[in-house]
Design brief:
- The complex is a heterodimer of chains A (about 400) and B (about 375).
- Chain A is of the alpha/beta class and about 400 residues long.
- Chain A folds into two domains: about 1-10 and about 260-390, Aspartate Aminotransferase, domain 1 (Alpha-Beta Complex); about 15-255, Aspartate Aminotransferase, domain 2 (3-Layer(aba) Sandwich).
- Chain A has helices at about 15-25, 35-55, 70-85, 100-115, 130-140, 160-170, 190-195, 245-280, 315-325, 345-350, 355-360, 370-390; strands at about 1-5, 60-65, 90-95, 115-120, 145-150, 175-180, 200, 215, 285, 295, 300, 305-310, 330, 360-365.
- In chain A, helix 1 runs antiparallel to helix 8, helix 8 crosses helix 12 (about 370-390) and helix 9 (about 315-325) crosses helix 12 (about 370-390).
- The two termini of chain A are about 35 Å apart.
- Chain B is an alpha/beta fold.
- Chain B has nine helices and 18 strands.
- Chain B is globular, with a radius of gyration of 21 Å.
- The chains are: A alpha/beta (about 400), B alpha/beta (about 375).
Chain lengths: ~400, ~375
């Protein structure tokens, strides 16, 4: 089996499995006062401190959540509610249309049910949001509750310059949230230095467990909770801490951050060989997103493991099925929970036509990817695309 | 063989897919998303196109250990089946959307795509027998679906598999239960999948709006009432005419004339049909030599009638019925069978009925 869908989820790291297994064998609620509780709390708080250090945050800025979707919901809704509560003129949300659905659907829910007005940011053909576009959309910022721009796009891998965007937002007094689920461990992410007010990350994209995420939230950011209860996590996110998951998340994150400088160039080289091989083997292939060697503010402008390609005349889901039958696992990057493939909203937001958005495929490489994985794809891609293109001809 | 199993989420297609796996085929499951605005959950026992139905199909595929995908055919289905359904009613005819779906979607759009992707056949949970290219009625007469498959050509049938035709529906449910499929006791779907509330007249009224016209009694030629749209009527219909005629005898719809929007009604005697004329037929095998004797079924779940089939002008058929029939509606298919009590009546082909002729000539408008 050739697993090239690390942007969906990654294999759990052996050290994560070991740390979680050990913690799962211990009793203790981190909120309890007795010895077992203290031991659990110590493990959780140690993880919080190590995570904070790895991400350039203070421990008090680390809020544990149930994952990326919850963190995005909490940041977008919580910041919107708190900011509008403080000043009722603040009803506007400024957001990129290329965001993950956890952000998009939160924004649309607020627009439909809670009186929010949405301003969609201009997106470059690469998928990047430029500081000028944010400045234009924010105006004087007086009526804006919150802005949200992802650090790196989950489909096409384009990185935006979050420090520059955060500076723009800060200059007009608007908090910026950034979804960094795909960015942490792949590109340098320093929360404090970025100037962002809130940052979403999750464990299972970098070798950790599912169901464990973090919202980094500046100490001075006011955020209305989604979950009420025991008052854990600065009273912003109640609920008994899942200590084993938190330990796993921390081990995975610190490992991913520590090994990034060695791993990222290795994965980027594999990815570059994959893209070059596909382009050589198949006619009419378009690379979506930023160029492979794109540089942004001195760092990579594209995630090292991301290869997102459109195969004119073939449907993404047909390509996916044919590759699946040959043991190659990848993604169209845009399947909704109902399982119906839709044209990629990210490509549409970046100005692609529906045909290009429908014919796309995402290969995402990660810590377990090898030269053999690349060879497997290059061995079969030409006949697979040819067959999918034949099947695509019947479409009206 | 590499086989594509069309899985609706119901018990029939689940068992059909399982039997294809048992037969040693390399099976891939596909659920067809046919509705442009899919509901999250089923409403009532009807329909097969909700996300919940896709989930039911996926559960079975996962149990069978076969790949499973959802194919979005909503656009094709809307154009070829739903729009056709509405247009046929607007033209005063009574379409059969299941037959149209088999003709245009399952054994055309899906089959074409399957072949292009390298599959050899499509397996479905239809209750009909298919062996050596011969399509026959199911052993379960009450569940027989050969009528809605009668439109398939030899070429389409050559890539179709119907593994359920030789067993009863009860046996299908037993197999599903033995295998622990959660859908074993799922209710049968009825009616038209894209009208989940079963209100066809309401659906057509929303699509076509109010189109009032007269209801005319054939015996006198006089207008006896008004209606909101001819689409509310089917030739042969007795109930819900909304008019009372002086002699109190039951009246039936004899004809629907879409331009003047006239619905003509008449007595039981006038509603009897002895001859139908059709559009060009399709055949499940080599075209038989005309004329010939056969049995014809004039609507889904209708009883077969012996008949003589002969050529008509314009490439259609003229079918003379041995016994007078009521409830014969233009737009429905006349499906022709060669009776065979041992192996099951064999489907010869079908033709869409265009004109019907009553036993006695009546005043037509």
């Amino acid at each position: 089996m050739t697993y090239l869908d690390h942007a969906a989820t990654t294999p759990v790291l052996p050290e994560v499995l070991a740390a979680m297994t050990e913690q799962l064998g211990r009793v203790g609620n981190a909120s309890s006062l007795h010895a077992s509780g203290r031991a659990a709390r110590r493990a959780a708080e140690q993880s919080r401190e190590r995570l904070a250090e790895a991400l350039g945050a203070r421990p008090s800025e680390v809020l544990f959540t149930g994952g990326g979707t919850e963190s995005d919901n909490l940041a977008v809704k919580g910041l919107f509610w708190a900011r509008r509560q403080a000043d009722s003129r603040r009803r506007r949300i400024v957001v990129s249309p290329a965001e993950h659905h956890a952000v998009l659907d939160s924004v649309e829910w607020l627009a439909k049910h809670d009186g929010a007005d949405v301003t969609w940011l201009r997106v470059e053909p690469t998928g990047r949001v430029l500081p000028e576009a944010l400045a234009e959309a924010l105006g004087d910022g007086d009526d804006v509750a919150v802005a949200s721009v992802m650090w790196a796009n989950n489909e096409i891998g384009t990185v935006s310059d979050i420090p520059a965007l955060a500076a723009v937002a800060r200059s007009v007094g608007v908090p910026l949230h950034t979804d960094a689920v795909q960015a942490v461990g792949q590109v340098p992410v320093d929360f404090g230095a970025s100037g962002a007010d809130a940052l979403t990350m999750t464990g299972h994209k970098l070798g950790g467990p599912m169901g464990a995420g973090v919202l980094l939230l500046r100490r001075d950011a006011d955020c209305t909770p989604l979950l009420h209860g025991g008052g854990q996590e600065r009273d912003v996110r109640s609920g008994t801490l899942d200590v084993a998951a938190i330990v796993g998340l921390e081990v995975a994150t610190t490992s991913a951050v520590r090994t990034r400088a060695e791993r990222a160039p290795r994965i980027a080289a594999l990815r570059d060989r994959l893209v070059a091989g596909i382009v050589a083997a198949v006619p009419d292939v378009q690379l979506n997103g930023a160029p492979l060697d794109d540089v942004l503010a001195g760092g990579p402008g594209r995630l090292p493991g991301n290869a997102h390609l459109s195969f004119a005349g073939a449907e993404g889901d047909a390509l996916l099925m044919l590759l699946d039958a040959r043991g190659i696992e990848c993604s169209t990057g845009s399947a909704c929970s109902a399982g119906v493939a839709r044209p990629s909203h990210v490509l549409l937001a970046a100005g692609a036509d529906a045909g290009r958005a429908r014919s796309s495929l995402r290969f995402s490489l990660g810590h377990t990817s090898t030269d053999e994985d690349v060879d497997e794809v290059l061995d079969v891609i030409a006949p697979v695309v040819e067959r999918a293109r034949r099947a695509g001809l019947g479409r009206r | 063989m590499r086989v594509l199993a069309a899985m609706s989420g119901g018990v029939d297609s689940a068992v059909a897919a399982a039997l294809a796996v048992d037969a040693g085929h390399d099976v891939t499951g596909v659920h067809l998303a046919l509705s442009p605005d899919r509901q999250t959950l089923r409403s009532g026992a009807r329909g097969c196109c909700s996300v919940e139905d896709a989930h039911d199909a996926r559960r079975v595929a996962d149990e069978l250990g076969i790949p499973f995908y959802v194919w979005d055919l909503a656009e094709r289905f809307t154009e070829d089946v739903v729009d056709d359904f509405v247009a046929e009613y607007a033209a005063g005819r009574t379409p059969n959307p299941c037959l149209r779906c088999n003709e245009k979607i399952k054994f055309s759009a899906v089959l074409d795509r399957a072949r292009a992707l390298g599959f050899d056949a499509v397996v479905t949970g239809h209750h009909a027998r298919l062996a050596d290219g011969e399509l026959r009625r199911s052993v379960d007469a009450a569940k027989d679906q050969s009528y809605v498959l009668g439109v398939l050509t030899a070429e389409q049938l050559s890539a179709a598999m119907f593994p359920l035709g030789s067993m009863t529906k009860d046996r299908v449910r037993e197999i599903a239960a033995e295998r622990g499929f959660a859908v074993a006791a799922k209710p049968d779907s009825h009616d038209i999948c894209f009208i989940p509330d079963g209100d066809t007249r309401g659906f057509l009224a929303r699509k076509l709006g109010s189109r009032p016209g007269p209801v005319v009694d054939a015996a006198t030629g006089s207008t006896v009432g008004e209606h909101d749209g001819t689409f509310g009527f089917t030739v042969g219909q007795r109930r819900g005419l909304g008019v009372t005629v002086g002699d109190q005898r039951p009246r039936y719809v004899l004809s629907i004339e879409p331009v003047s929007r006239t619905v003509t009604i008449g007595t039981a005697e006038q509603a009897g049909v002895t001859e139908v004329r059709t559009a060009a037929p399709t055949w499940t095998g080599a075209a038989p030599e005309l004329p010939f004797r056969a049995e014809v079924q004039l609507r889904a779940h209708g009883a077969p009638v012996s008949c003589e089939v002969m050529a008509d002008e314009g490439g259609g058929l003229r079918i003379l019925l041995d016994e007078e029939q009521r409830g014969v509606a233009p737009g429905q298919s006349a499906v022709l069978y060669e009776p065979d009590p041992d192996r099951g009546d064999r489907v010869l082909g079908q033709a869409a009925m265009r004109r019907i002729r009553e036993r006695e000539e009546t005043v037509r408008h």
